[in-house]
Amino acid sequence: MFFHNLKYEIILNLRAKEVIIWMLLFPIALSVLYKAAFGNVYENGGITTVPVAVVEHEPDEMFRSMINYMGESESTVDGTESNLGRWLAKTMQEKNQQEDGERKPLFHAIYCNEEDAYRMLEDGDVKGIIFVDAPEGAAALSGDTQDADTSGDASDTVTAEWGAEAIKHFREAWGGDAVYENADAEEILSGEGLTLQDMTSFQDMLDKKSSLTLKIKSNGMEQSSIKRFLEMYSALTGITAHLADGGDTDSSSVMDAAVIADEKLTEGNTDPFVTYMYNMIAMVALFGMTVALHVALFSEANLSDYGARRSCSSTPKLTTIMAGLCGCFLSQILCVAVCITFQAFVLKVDFGGRLPFVYLGGALGAVMGVSMGFFVGAIGRLKYEAKIGISMAVVMGLSFMSGLMFSGIKASIEMSAPIINDLNPVAIVADSFYYLSVDPDLTRYWGKMVCVLLYTVVFILLGFLLTRRRKYESL
Amino acid sequence: MGDTVVKIENLVKKYKELTAVDHLSLEIRKGEVFGLLGPNGSGKTTTISCLLSLLAFDEGTIELFGKTMTPTSYDIKARIGIIPQNVAVFDELNVYENIDCFCGLYITDKAKRRQYVDEAIAFVGLQDFTKFKPKKLSGGLLRRLNIACGIAHKPELIILDEPTVAVDPQSRNKILEGIEELNKNGATVIYTTHYMEEVEQICSKIAIMDHGKKIAEGTSGELKRMIKNTETVTIEMDEPDQALVETLNRLESVYEVKWEAGKLKIYLAGGEHNLLDIMDLLRTSGVRFGQVTSELPTLNDVFLTITGKELRDKD
After folding, report:
1. Cβ-contact B267, B232 below 8 angstroms
2. Mean pLDDT lowest among A63-77, A278-292, B129-143, B272-286
3. CB contact under 8 A, B105 and A314
4. Cβ of A473 and B82 within 8 Å?
5. What is the secondary structure of A206-229 as a DSSP string?
6. What pLDDT score does B67 carry?
7. What is the longest distance spanned by two Cα atoms in chain A?
8. Least confident residue range of A5-14, A201-210, B100-109, B139-148
9. Is A385 an 8 Å CB contact of chain B?
10. Distance CA B113, CA A8 (A)
């Protein structure tokens, strides 16, 4: 009887229009939309040229050459560029270059005085103002402009933090680990048209420790690009200065530092776009709620005619409920697997080297969603359609709070009420995927999986508690 | 007593202040088609729900097949087939799958189940619709599917809760014929309805319920004999004078004469050749009249006589 019920449970689930629409078509359509809307943005690291004003209170040759190399420039101030600056710029540019090799200017730098810069910022002609070696007064806010935190520690200015701090900063800015690779310094120097003499001559320049301040009027992707550029610049100059200035003056070490290579800390993918996909998988898993609502509804005589019919049969209620739950588990896991497979193999979303764990997390998330649906189906005497509507709204709400529609919402919740993120089932599943991306080990991933299983056990027990009664007071 | 399939004694079911079933006692014997007749809200479905151990009740005892019915009486449940008032089939499954799905709640052997499902399909005449999803079926066919789902496992006791609601006459006849055939094949049937014609047509025994109470029980004839009226003669004519009415009232079997809606209604209790006597009297009185009809009493008359109200609103 169990397998007979299980068979029809799976058939019913997979033929249900709501399941096909919400568990299969909706996530696939949303995945395609996200891929079309955000996929290339993140992959290319920003494809628009950002206009930025540069106010040099004290000329900085290296910075000038750097920013000029990164894009187009209109100079109203005389100055010179440096080979090292160009070389650093090229290193950074390579990180941001589009995959097809096309070099797009990242910035349109406009050199001007402070007054013109503020005017252009107010008019929206530039997205930010970079003050080079700005005096203390320049940091003061003007109008509704604001200082951007370009150093990651909420200070008003970006000061090149030398040495180990800079390396740490660089790691953060790049989202990966930085290691020194063995490389032939001379070869690199010749290849880049840079000489050791250049390096030595820049020792003095680096010692000046130019101070950079960014002023922006509002937050956005373009402002973030400028900020990230300044962070990377600070990090690179810091590393270079550290190696050139300290006891470690071996020229090859200097160059080794320059040819920094990424070595991934994890097998995952930290691309922000992928986190949207993680949230979507979590959402599909939690849609199991809507699938499993009928398990209790169709087993309880006071909730449906199907329930009455089943309650009058010679099959024990426990058998029909267990078969219903197992059927929902299997069909929901299938839906999640289809979603992940579509994203990974059709949309080519890079889940890193831990795809099996993404499948596992999705499957356990689906089990949790089904158990929640079983519980919701068992409480109250609302109509099936009403419960479906409530469940859909709950899942969408939880997904929104987890950052499915707007990635910043989760961070905002984390700041104000982190307990909500800790309890949000969608966030739990999505976080487990995120930990796969950023953690070298699986400790935090398994921690989230334990949370998922705890939720599952609690909801199933509550569901059984509510469906255990033998007779009803009313039908 | 070995033939007793259902025995209900002093059943009381209350919903807070409302007493839905009030000290109801019934005994249904094997092979009977037992009709539970009553208007909506009279307690028929509540009685059935208590019988099936779905509803908790306040007082009384219920026995099926000589055993007390409980929610875990799976051996008893295996012998019962239930056809609920609302159609309870799955839209996602076709006709065959629906019947197989519900039959599988009782029959585990696949080959046997396949045979039973085929027989149920043939019984309700859905052979040409086995691959149809319920939404493609008409109301009547849907009702037949609903019945097939309840009887496929060949139950000894079949409970039909108003199975012909909103069904076209053709399908209704098919359903009623089916019930008679099931009964001929040995099944005991409990049939709840507020359609007195159906009860009269198929039920061997009838209990009339109102406000949770059994107000009458017996065969159709026994119930009708409970009331004074045995025949009603209706005559189309001009309004009669008082002398004619008095003359008619003097006839031996006539106990009431009424002028209603342009027709003269003469109520008779017992007697023979009543219609001939009335016609002779009209002719000799020189009264001009049109259509004359004679009606035997119905269960509605029984209900009307006992409760003072109609069994159901006129359709």
Report:
1. yes
2. A63-77
3. yes
4. no
5. HHT--EEEEEESS-SHHHHHHHHH
6. 93
7. 94
8. A201-210
9. no
10. 15
What is the rounded average pLDDT for all residues in chain B?
A: 90
> Quick one: CATH architecture of A45-263?
3-Layer(aba) Sandwich (3.40)
Which residue's entry shows tokens 């809507």? A290
Short-list A458, A466, A469, CA closest to A372:
A458
Percent of chain B clearing pLDDT 70 (strictly above): 98
Could you tell me if A310 and A411 are in contact, meaning their C-beta atoms sit under 8 angstroms apart? no
pLDDT for B2 equals 59
Residues 6+ positions from B78 with CB-CB distance below 8 Å: A314, B106, B153, B155
**How far is the alpha carbon of A467 from chain B, nearest alpha carbon, in Å?**
13
pLDDT at B228: 81
- Between positions 285 and 344 of A, the ones with CB within 8 A of B are 301-302, 304-306, 308-316, 320
The answer to whether B55 contacts A473, with C-beta atoms less than 8 Å apart, is yes
Joined together, the tokens standing for residue A97 give 């270059």
B286: left (phi over 0), alpha (psi -120 to 50) or beta: left
ipTM associated with this complex:
0.81
**CB-based contact B214:B206 (threshold 8 Å):** no
In this structure, what is the dihedral angle of CA atoms A191, A192, A195, A201, given to the nearest 10 degrees? Answer: -170
Which CA distances in Å does B268 have to A85, A192, A340, B200, B234? 120, 123, 82, 22, 11
Selecting from B15, B75, B77 the residue whose C-beta is nearest the C-beta of A313 gives B77
Instruction: Mark yes or no for CB contact A472/B106 under 8 Å.
Output: no
**Domain spans of chain A?**
2-41+269-467, 45-263
User: Please, which residues have CB within 8 angstroms of residue B151's CB and are 6 or more apart in sequence?
Assistant: B81, B83, B120, B123, B158, B182, B187
Q: Give every CB contact of residue A413 below 8 A, 6+ residues apart in sequence.
A: A401, A420, A421
pLDDT confidence of residue A180: 33
Q: What pLDDT, on a 0 to 100 scale, did the predictor assign at position A246?
A: 56
Domains, in order of start, for chain B: 4-224 (3.40.50.300), 231-296 (3.30.70.100)
Asked if residues B204 and B184 have their Cβ atoms less than 8 Å apart, the reply is no
Q: Which amino acid is at A266?
A: T
- State residue A237's pLDDT score: 73
Please give the pLDDT value at position A177: 38
Q: What is the pLDDT of residue A86?
A: 54
Q: What residues of chain A lie within 8 A of the CB of B52, using their CB?
A: 311-312
Q: Are A223 and A216 in contact (CB under 8 A)?
A: yes
Nearest chain A CA: its distance from B77 CA (Å): 5
pLDDT score for B226:
84
A66 touches A89 (CB < 8 A): yes
Over residues B224-239, the mean pLDDT reads 87
Work out the average pLDDT over B233-253.
90
Of residues B190, B194, B166, B165, the one with CA closest to residue B179: B190
Structure tokens at A201: 């001559």
In eight-state DSSP terms, residue A38 is I
Low-confidence ranges of chain A (pLDDT < 50): 44-46, 75-82, 95, 98-101, 134-145, 148-202, 247, 249-265
In the numeric block, the tokens 């120097």 are attached to: A189
The pLDDT of residue B25 is: 95
